[in-house]
Amino acid sequence: MSMIIDPYRFGGDTFLAPYHLDVVPFVGWGSTNGMTPAQTNVSTALGMGYVGSSGADADDGDWVEYSFHVAAGTYTVQIIRPSFASSGSYDWTIDGVSIGASDVAYGAGAFYNTVVQYTSVALTAGDHTLRCTVNGKHASSTDYRLLMQMVTFTRTGA
Amino acid sequence: MATVGPAHIDIVAWGNVKAATGTYTRLQDSSTLTGGHGYDSAGAINNYLTWDVPLIAGNWTITVIHYTNINRGIVTPSIAGTDLATYDGYSAGPVRNVVAQWTGVSVATSGVKEFKLRCDSKHASSSGYYTIPSLITFSNEDDPTTSFTCTGPSRIDIVPFGFWEHVVGDAGARGQISDSLGGGYRQTNTLNDETGWYVPLMSGTWALDVIYRSRTEGGIVTVSIDGSSVGTIDTYNAAPGANAVATITGISVASSKMALLKFTTTSKHASSAGYRFYNQHIALRKTA
């Protein structure tokens, strides 16, 4: 398997950029809009918790961003998140471009560890920004909460 | 032309895999470091899980934290097709957070390598071929400040209960507890204890977030990068608890480098009864 050339960043050096990247979202977000992410511990969740907007802080249009860095290629992006009766519906974008269909995060209760998967996401080598934006909600949802547990990028091809 | 790459890589096994035979399955477990596992639920002989990791040439320490029980197999890890010594996942009853570790693992050429956990035999008393990892950590044993010349990503997550590249004093212990984000912590206990990780930092401005467990005997920790203090964290709290967050912003990195991010317990709050530091998670992010 070849190494990844990332010259814009490293002045011609060969940089071994990740093919597999785990972003633990509990801390370290970048810009936000309309929300202050907060952590909640829960013993039945993978990662033992989640991060996101509280019920008092949830509105349509809220968003949060995370930066990440990968090698060039095609990726599967998996988001592990709760499904609450108060969850909104999410648009996931990378560098402003949608990576797939809207993610309706509503669940009729409080469920954890829901896996949302987007495949064949083409990424160039280097830094990128993942954004999750609340865009509406399921008809039965009571609010627009934005919640997540983990984001994983796995390279599947060139 | 130099070849550079990360010196520390954490893979949370329930995140995802590159490939798996059988059925890759996530198992939530409130008694486990990271809060869960990723495994092959078919549990057949020779089934495997793989991940791609970017490994610079040199020597590495590899750590797998896993869950043993009566139906586990004997696992052969491999890197790019080269087998390492096996570990036996069998135990007479369930034991979580078992550490299997290989040191001095030589990587001859830099590149993205496939790391595989293959379950290819079993203990005579075992009833199955399962292997159930929760965390895998790759840590470069060489001195990255001299063997690495450049830098990398804009975000770095470090799971501190995996492995650390630098330690002075108390090596601490892993603690698993269900009230903690991430499922646990790694602790140090005494004054002047140091723990550290090598991180590839691009020139610019960075922020550091630390999730920790505050304690009545918590110490004050000085955070430094290559020996220069960037801030302190007072982990004392009269009403202690998990999931406290400290953020240090405006960390200026003048030139891109592989740097030692270090946590040193340098003092304590006047009311604190000790110098403990319980570190749950670290995230570095480039802000400018």
Break the fold down into its secondary structure elements and pairings.
The complex is a heterodimer of chains A (158) and B (288).
Chain A lengths: L6 H4 L3 E2 L4 E4 L8 E2 L4 E4 L7 E4 L10 E8 L2 E12 L4 E6 L2 E2 L4 E2 L5 E14 L2 E9 L12 E2 L1 E8 L1
Antiparallel strand pairs in A: 2-14, 3-6, 4-5, 5-13, 6-12, 7-11, 7-14, 8-9, 8-10, 8-12
Chain B lengths: L2 E2 L3 E5 L6 E2 L3 E5 L7 E5 L7 E8 L2 E11 L5 E6 L2 E2 L3 E2 L6 E13 L3 E11 L11 E8 L3 H4 L7 E4 L7 E3 L5 E3 L7 E5 L5 E8 L2 E11 L4 E7 L2 E7 L6 E13 L3 E12 L8 E10 L2
Antiparallel strand pairs in B: 2-13, 3-6, 4-5, 6-12, 7-11, 7-13, 8-9, 8-10, 8-12, 14-24, 15-18, 16-17, 17-24, 18-23, 19-22, 19-24, 20-21, 20-23
Summarize the structure.
Chain A has one helix spanning 7-10; strands at residues 14-15, 20-23, 32-33, 38-41, 49-52, 63-70, 73-84, 89-94, 97-98, 103-104, 110-123, 126-134, 147-148, 150-157.
Structure notes:
The complex is a heterodimer of chains A (158) and B (288). By secondary structure, chain A is mainly beta. Chain A contains 1 helix and 14 strands. In chain A, the strands form 3 sheets. In chain A, strands 3, 6, 8, 9, 10 and 12 form a 6-stranded antiparallel beta sheet that branches. Chain A has a 4-stranded antiparallel beta sheet with strand order 2-14-7-11, with no helix packed on it. A 3-stranded antiparallel beta sheet of chain A has the order 4-5-13, with no helix packed on it. In chain A, 47% of the residues are buried. Chain B is mainly beta and 288 residues long. Chain B is built from 1 helix and 24 strands. In chain B, strands 3, 6, 8, 9, 10 and 12 form a 6-stranded antiparallel beta sheet that branches. In chain B, strands 14, 16, 17, 19, 22 and 24 form a 6-stranded antiparallel beta sheet that branches. Chain B has a 5-stranded antiparallel beta sheet with strand order 15-18-23-20-21. In chain B, a hairpin with a 7-residue loop joins strand 4 and strand 5. Chain B is globular and about 55 Å long. About 2% of the residues of chain B have low confidence. At the A-B interface, strand 1, strand 2, strand 6, strand 7 and strand 11 of A face strand 1, strand 2, strand 6, strand 12 and strand 19 of B.
